[in-house]
């Protein structure tokens, strides 16, 4: 049982790291440019990292502690905020 929780914690921490990468790209774009040199890499950081973070923290919440649901909710809110920001119409 302890191994299962430690494995779920490891998976959750990887998901949390993905969310941190997304927020780094959001608040420090100059620093985020060092992560990805191409436009495809920037697209993956912007959209792939939150989705991966949500999935991995959801797995951690199911297999481990329910406190991971707080991180899942934060990831979903972050992804919705990013989607709304990208879908705004610019004139």
Keywords:
mainly alpha; 91 residues; 0% strand; 82% helix; 4 helices
What's the layout of helices and strands?
Layout: H1 2-27, H2 29-32, H3 39-63, H4 68-87
Helix pairs in contact: 1-3, 1-4, 3-4
Could you describe the 3D structure shown?
The structure is a single chain. With 91 residues, the chain is an all-alpha fold. It is built from four helices and no strands. It has one domain. It has helices at 2-27, 29-32, 39-63, 68-87. 24% of the residues are buried.
In short:
With 91 residues, the protein is mainly α. It is built from 4 helices and no strands.
Biggest sheet overview? none
Q: Helical percent range?
A: over 70%
Would you tell me the overall average pLDDT? 77
**Termini, distance in Å?**
56 Å
Q: Approximately how much beta-strand content do the residues carry?
A: under 5%
* Broad structural category: mainly alpha
Topology as H/E string? HHHH
| Number of domain modules | 1
Number of helices: 4
Care to count the β-strands? 0
